[in-house]
Design goal:
It is a single chain. The chain is an alpha/beta fold. It has 3 domains: 4-204, 3-Layer(aba) Sandwich (Rossmann fold); 215-393, 3-Layer(aba) Sandwich (Rossmann fold), CATH 3.40.50; 406-498, Alpha-Beta Plaits (2-Layer Sandwich). Helices cover 35% and strands 19% of the residues. It has 18 helices and 23 strands. The strands form 5 sheets. The chain has a 7-stranded parallel β-sheet, sandwiched between helices. It has a 7-stranded parallel β-sheet with strand order 10-11-9-12-13-8-14, sandwiched between helices. Strands 17, 18, 19, 20 and 23 form a 5-stranded antiparallel β-sheet that branches. The chain is globular and about 70 Å long. It starts with 10 loop residues before the first helix and ends in a 9-residue tail after the last helix.
Length: 507
């Protein structure tokens, strides 16, 4: 079995690894570290929990000297939380090498970050937006960069950082060593790899590895109005360490307000000041409260190993986010449970998650889900034997066929999903105005939007399937004249589709 001493690492790094309690390298470390140290560009599919941060940290510190006048290594991360955690791990690994590091991100003082850069650093870890700002201001000089890391490149593109990435990559020397890490091998990521890398070595770590064998997954069918009561029921009688995921910042705050009198909770979302977000994570890690209610900002890079339970109060936008959420539990050899609240209109998502993860998600009725306190046995989270027998006897298909979105197909083979939105003539909208609103809020080009069916209080709109989940999530954060907008898959065939459908050749 390969040990860290077999990877070609300097003794100073091996000593730091020993201090951190790392015993054996992970599969991606075993494969990537020797190749990276030899100067090979690396294009790796790897998720949180696979050891990817340690992988590139060991490579860049193994290839660079400390004490440089200007930064020699640049790490790009999608969020402030991840940038902070990456810099913290680099700091620990640099204990004996002398490498100086700094994290650069929005929400913190530009003056403090500029001062830190002037003092001299070897490794800069930052988010694309703030890095571009610092470069434009002349506060960050990348002329001596030899090592570039793109961490969670797929996430950065999803968050709309494509222009910032191009700007930054154009600012670093062309003669550099590049490491790219992504949860997927999507075409957009491959284009970056081919454009910005030299004959990269491709490495893939199965996305199922971090969680699939350690997390027991359940889903509970219920109405939207029943979610609050069910959550409180699950979290009574000895609440274990739990992360509750919501789709919007508003829902995070609403849940926290409702639950605060009965259960001590913390919140985490993008509108919180950075200092408060860091305090919240620290307090949760130190067990000052047991329940963290968060948006997906916490799904990636939240480095807490003893989370017992994950609750998807709202379903995530896609399978990747689902996997990242449930990957917060079932870590460090400890079993965990993931529970998803699913409305009738959302049941089709469960089949998608099962197909993507290759794992069965067990259906349970709301009255059969035990409280979280009864799930903890000998410090391992698992359903008690009685409950497991109950779960096993519940047929997966014992209810009516779930409502699925109505699908139309364009002439070039693209799928169009029919969604419904709770806006119509009574709200002062025309078909064109509905279409324009969805395009603007959802940041959609014309090619992704089709027919509109206008009703008095509800309208239908066709959205390309690969943009539908994201559009529904985005619209859910929009208020029209203080009215909360709801967008979801259509529960019936729109009347306009019963007539002759317009040609999809325009798409």
């Amino acid at each position: 079995m390969t040990g860290f001493e077999d990877l070609g690492l300097d003794v100073t790094l091996l000593k730091a690894i020993s201090d951190m309690g790392w015993n054996l390298p992970t599969p991606i470390q075993t494969e990537a570290v020797p190749a990276g140290l030899a100067g090979r560009d690396i294009f790796a599919q790897a998720q949180t929990g696979t050891g990817k941060t340690g992988t590139y940290a060991l490579i860049i510190m193994g290839r660079t000297e400390s004490g440089s006048k200007k930064p020699t290594s640049l790490v790009l991360a999608p969020t402030r939380e991840l940038a902070t955690q990456v810099e913290n791990e680099i700091y620990k690994l640099s204990k004996y090498t002398g490498h100086r590091s700094i994290s650069i991100y929005g929400g913190a003082s530009i003056g403090d970050q500029t001062y830190g850069l002037r003092k001299g650093v070897d490794i800069v870890v930052g988010t694309p937006g703030r890095l571009k700002d610092m470069i434009t201001r002349g506060a960050l000089d990348l002329s001596e960069i030899t090592e570039v890391v793109l961490d969670e490149a797929d996430r950065m593109l999803d968050m709309g950082f494509a222009d910032e990435l191009d700007f930054i990559m154009d600012a670093v020397p062309k003669d550099r060593h590049t490491l790219l890490f992504s949860a997927t091998m999507a075409e957009s990521i491959k284009r970056i790899a081919f454009k910005r890398m030299q004959d990269p070595m491709e490495i893939s770590v199965s996305r199922d590895e971090p969680v699939s064998d350690l997390v027991t997954q359940y889903w509970i069918p219920m109405s939207r109005g029943a979610k609050m009561e069910r959550l409180e029921s699950i979290l009574t009688n000895g609440c274990p360490k739990t992360v509750v995921f919501c789709q919007t910042k508003k829902m995070v705050d609403t849940l926290a307000d409702e639950m605060y009198q009965r259960i001590k909770v913390g919140t985490l979302h993008g509108d919180m000041p950075q200092a408060k977000r860091e305090r919240t994570i620290r307090s949760f890690r130190n067990n000052r409260f047991q329940v963290l209610i968060a948006t997906d900002v916490a799904a990636r890079g939240l480095d807490i190993n003893n989370i017992d339970l994950v609750v998807n109060y709202d379903l995530p936008m896609d399978s990747e986010n689902y996997l990242h959420r449930i990957g917060r539990t079932g870590r460090a050899g400890k079993e965990g449970i993931a529970v998803s609240f699913v409305t009738k209109q959302e049941e089709y998502h469960i089949r998608q998650y099962e197909r993507e993860t290759g794992k069965k998600i067990l259906k349970v009725r709301a009255d059969e889900m035990p409280s979280a306190g009864t799930m903890v046995i000998e410090d391992q989270v698992r359903a008690p034997a009685k409950a497991q027998r109950q779960f096993a006897t519940v047929p997966i298909n014992d209810t009516k066929k779930p409502v699925r979105p109505v699908i139309a197909t364009t002439e070039d083979g693209k799928k169009m999903v029919v969604l419904q939105i709770n806006l119509g003539r009574d709200d002062g909208f025309s078909k064109t105005q509905i279409s324009d609103l969805v395009k603007r809020v959802g940041k959609l080009e014309d090619v992704f939007v089709g027919n509109v069916g206008l009703g008095r209080s509800k309208s239908f709109i066709e959205i390309r399937e690969d943009r539908s989940d994201r559009t529904m999530a985005t619209m859910s954060e929009y208020l029209h004249k203080k009215k909360e907008v709801l967008m979801e898959p259509a529960d019936k065939k729109p009347k306009y589709q019963e007539k002759k459908h317009k040609s999809y050749g325009q798409y």
